[in-house]
Automatic annotation (TrEMBL):
Stated name of the protein: Drug exporter of the RND superfamily
Gene source species: Micromonospora tulbaghiae
Membrane-crossing segments per the record: 21-41, 181-199, 206-226, 232-250, 271-295, 301-329, 369-390, 534-553, 560-585, 605-626, 647-669, 681-709
Pfam families: MMPL
Domain Membrane transport protein MMPL: 65-375, 406-717
Amino acid sequence: MGRRPVTVRLARWSAEHPWRAIALWVVFVAVCFVGGSAAGLNEATDEDQAIGEFGRAQLIVDSGGFDQPATENVLITARSGSLDQAAAKAAAQDAADRLRQVDGVASIGTPMPSRDGSALLVPITMSGDPGTAGDRVQPLRDTTAKVQVAHPQLRVEQVGGPSIDKALDDTLGKDFKRAELLSLPVTLAILIIAFGALIAAGVPVLLALSSVAAAMGLSTLASHLVPATDTTASVILLIGMAVGVDYSLFYVRREREERAKGRSGLDAVEIAAETSGHAVVVSGTAVIISMGGLLLAQDAIFSSLAVGSILVVAVAVIGSLTVLPALLAKLGRWVDRPRVPLLWRLTAPRTGRDGQPARPRFWPTVLKPALRAPVATLLISVALLLALAAPALGMKLKFPAAEDVPRNTAAMQAYDRLTAAYPSNGTSHTVAVRAPAEQAEQVRAALTDLAGRTAVDPLFAPAEGDGPEIRVSADRRVSVLEVATPHASRSDEASRSLHELRQDLVPATLGGIPGVEYAVGGGVAASEDYAAHIWAKLPIVAAFVLALTFLVMAWTFRSVVVALTSIVLNLLSAGAAYGLLVLVFQSDWAEGLLGFTSMDAIVTWLPLFLFVVLFGLSMDYHVFVVSRIREAVDRGMPNREAVAHGITSSAGVVTSAAVVMVAVFSIFATLSMIDFKQLGIGLAAAILLDATIIRAVVLPSVMTLLGDANWWAPRFMRRRTAAPAVEPPPAPAPELVGAR
């Protein structure tokens, strides 16, 4: 017999030395976590995240070294009818007097009436670090609330960046707390149903959580090479729980199945390592390749997500091959304790009198159409998936904006009243200019001319107060002008105003200045530029992921056909998920059902991220199922029977893993922000489609139709010797025969 695979050798050592393996794992996780905490997090800067002309504008502004303190506003409006100007001025003076006494207020501006006289605005400049203003704004809000009590005939409210940030943080904090409180017990409950035993259900969760903890520390260390963003930790948790639970689930189910056949604990662990362990390595490699494709996007956010995801998947794979066999060997039959009576009878591995697993009844029924009429089944199922994917051709990409933030907070309700009375406080474009200091006056004149041209254009909102405010840096090299538009940031009018600035107005006014460098940024520009960036990078990333996944699958299964079908099936799954996203979120029919307001677009970063995540996670199921089919073929089973055996024998674990992921991802769909709703629905729908239609209908149809051609490969890829089949189990112990 040749040298045993590395997965088996690792599992054997761990099973024979369980306490050493467990101790080494605990030390590894602790060192990673503590080391990462000690090193500290290196966060991405504006320079790291600069994309397109928006990014250039941001870098020009940053180079000016402007003092940009946090600002707030007290907005005074009438509760009904017209505003009593005398009462409004008295309330404004009262607010100014009170706020001057509050710690954290640097200055109070002159009250500014709106053009139509419907509101009075008191500007507030805060002291201290603008980045922490949201944490320090509550005393100001409390003071404004006292002014409201003193002037009940008016509406007195506070609004500004720090207030909105605090409201969002409070809302998102509650959302994430609820999601965290739900996700762990939901996962555990599903695993208890899947295993019928508490310890067996707890093992996958334990491995997943420890993998996440280790990856968090490693990603902090890695941030000194690839700067991290504030979304990295959330993605590590999301991906880590998904793959950690999946890998453990595959391994534990196979080990229990082999023990049910009468094998010893050590033999069961070895076979699980040789079969499920091998599938975990291949699956993990596929996920790592998929997430590695994000590095080609040349984007700090995606690079950070790629590094975090790669690390957590790698750690989960290592844990599945080392500490998991040790735990199973040490626990032995205790892994099936304590049993949940009814669930145990339904989920325990069953064996017949021949010692082989009892045949399930449900899945053979599901597979009948694919096995008996593969052509018709394939055509119908693929047609349905393509029909579901078709709406994706009309996908539009945009960033969420202020109008997409839930209006259930006082800060956002006040923001709507502020932008209605003072349009220049809403959506705006940033015109950033850098030129030699001696050109400063010429730049100012050009920007003043630009402001005058926009003031008479209905696409733009005129400046409030005494005219345009042009900020100039201390060295007089950088000048900045904010050009407002009265239209919502995602509207076609806002987009047209951006293009008019970039293509006509800014070049016409600034283009003739010697040595000038300019760019137009702002929220609308960020959305448009990032969408263009995603559309440009998506084909590159997709090609990389498809090519490397093809090579891994072809070499693993020694079959070009299996590799090609794997790619096609995953593309069908991703396309259907895209189409479903467009159907749900680019129209308004599901607004009441899911609690959102349609933005008539998909969040800009989602298609690229969704593609690599789905392609990686789908491989979990595909590798596991095809491995069972290949295992049956290597034992000499005819192709049609091997397909039926592989899918029915893996259906339980694949279904359990899919239910866990669908449940956890669905929790994200309950969050307030549209980003997370789309992410949750997209992931949950794709996993559901993948585990049902793709694996139970399309895959068996294709593999039945192809027959022996499934395993075709060029001569250089073929196995030199037949793959060693898993040896038949010994006769089952009397107490196991028919015991379950």
